[in-house]
Specification:
Number of strands of chain B: 0
CATH architecture of chain B: Up-down Bundle
Structural class of chain A: alpha+beta
Strand order of the largest sheet of chain A: 1-2
CATH class of chain B: Mainly Alpha
Order of helices and strands of chain B: HHHHHHHHHHHHHHH
Largest sheet of chain A: 2 strands, antiparallel
CATH topology of one domain in chain A: Cytochrome Bc1 Complex, Chain D, domain 2
Number of helices of chain B: 15
CATH class of one domain in chain A: Mainly Alpha
Radius of gyration of chain B: 22 Å
Largest interface: A-B, 78 and 89 residues
Helix content of chain A: 25-40%
CATH architecture of one domain in chain A: Orthogonal Bundle
Number of domains of chain B: 1
CATH topology of chain B: Cytochrome C Oxidase, Chain A
Strand content of chain A: 5-15%
Distance between the termini of chain B: 23 Å
Shape of chain A: extended
Order of helices and strands of chain A: HEEHHHEHEH
Oligomer: heterodimer
Number of helices of chain A: 6
Largest sheet of chain B: none
Strand content of chain B: under 5%
Chain lengths: ~220, ~475
Amino acid sequence: MTSFKKFILGITACFFFPWLCLVVIPHSKMNADIQEWTDADTGAVNAFPAGKPNIFRQGQIVYAQEGCASCHTQMIRPTYMGFESWRPGFGKEGTIEEPVRTRETRLGDYDGEEFAYLGNQRIGPDLSNVGYRHDEAWHHEHLYLPQSKRDFSLMPSFRHLYKKRKIRGQKSELALKNIEWSDDEEAQNYEIVPTDRAKALVGYLMTLKKDDPFGAVIATENE
Amino acid sequence: MTTEEENNETINRRSLIDKSCRFPVLFFIVSASAWLIFAATLGFIQQMKMHAPQFIDFSWLYFLNYGRSNPAFMTALVYGWAIQAGLGIGIWIMARLCSAEIKNPLTLLVAGHFWNIGVSIGVFGILLGYGTSIEWMAFPKAVWPILFASFSMIVIWMVMMFFRRQDRNVYISVWYILGSCFWFTWIFLTSNMYIHVFPGSALAKASTNAWYLSSLIYLFFVPLGLGVAYYLIPKIMGRPVHSSQLSYYGFWGLAVFGGWTGIQKFMGGPFPSWMPAVSGAAVIFMLIPILIVTVNQLMTIREDPSLINHSPALKFTAVGIGFFIVFSILYALGSFLSVGRFTQISFTSSGYQLLAVYGFFSMVMFGAIYFIVPRLMETEWPSANGIKSHLVLSVYAILILGVVHLFGGIWQSSAYAKFDSPLENAIAAAKPYAIGASLGWIAILVSITRFIINLFCLIFKTGQREIFPTLIAATRISPNK
């Protein structure tokens, strides 16, 4: 290793190949090809990815800005790796109200997104299919005061996405119901409503349904 | 010329070089240290918030929520402290080994200021809610060009320094430092371009992010840290490295395998399975160059083991290398599917990052700072006890954090793997470990405070100081020896 030229050539040669294979090529090639498949029962022709309306990008930005990905994953691994898809305690107030179609996440599930927030740590539950588990009102109340829905929760309160305002005329439909007011008068005259950022975030969570059916495995209703 | 005259000339030359790079190097070290104490404070806060969201949970402090303080802490630690300290020390070692006084210190100062402006916008941007939630790239999108421009200025300066060198020998440390700077520029530029600028597959962006993180560790922090160690150990020991051939093999081993690592983070994820498999294999193969290099360095220390008791710089460096071996073995273990399914995306994965950036790289940097700053200031460290307590508390804290993150992550993942038990159990399983990690952070905070007080007393020349070289062993070597 005597000359600078040889040195630069050497480290470039070593680094170029992994860079090409792990960064450059995946960027253009890693979108799933649309595959058509026929449903054996109905005979209908379907496609995967189904080309559903895209995820709610405004809300995904809030999701990123609030750092939700520091605790939540959006990656369901195959069952030989772990169980992220469904467990007791998911769903409304801990009851399984409807069987949620879950499978491991696939290549096509993130198509069209800006960035796939697969997650860094798993402190909270996986959110790949959270759109099925709760309704919007639940999400708002949970974001405002997580411990009111799950007393064991380690999630911080996202109060700053909500605002307190005086009720003028009709009370808002979106006003949160899990608020402990200091007195009756305040409870009568004030309400806490989501800001646009909170609405965007919940809108995004409601679109998280990574379960487009695909041909090779038929998604079952009672998995 | 007699030997004495030659010696005197060398000493004069060295002191001229030291004088010429005093301001830029001190600027980098001092601002890095300021970021370090900031990062450690945020680190403690985010760790507390992880298990106790009620901790300092006032409405107006919403920006300290875990989701913001965690990426802000990591950004401050990596970009504010680690990279900046590495650059400062790299510059000094380049000047010493090229045996040339530095020219254009203004370039370095300007680049350094821009780097700090970039990191400040980044960290406060994340806290104020403009972050991107992308690991180690969480700063707002506009920040990376600032960081890239200032880093490139420093790299260009280093290359020019290399061509102006007076010493015809090129030491192994120089190659390690130049290599790390070259790789950083490439990794940082292309990752940011692919993630923020070019359109492309969302999943490929996630895998690029995992690759970025791991490549930054293996191709920037590792060669830079090892390069600094390759300077410090022979210098303090007063003897050449055990085998210079081995250090070249080690370097090329890093170069060959380093770029393949990272994507094992997502094994079992929605990727073509060759990607995590290749990365996992590369991490295991990395053990070969790493063991070659570290054993080579530890063998050099073994040739006169009594010296390690006296020199704080040597002690910190040796501790850093020790933690590096632990890190690379654990990281390789986590690349096996059977272990990785429990360690991926858990406490363990953030523990790896801490072990690499704090346990290994920062310890070597502390060693280098203890060696360099007295030479720049031409005075001694004010307190030997300060250095000793910094060392002991750091080792203690890193051990706590390492154990807690490793076993906490495995315990937590095992709890998640019991699919028929409620979510509550899985979350409760993680809590005691998070509490333990907070204790580790308190120790880190105290140790860093001790370090900062010592550093600032030295630089601003306040407080009592030692007259002889500050050594941490009770027995003193007399200055004449």
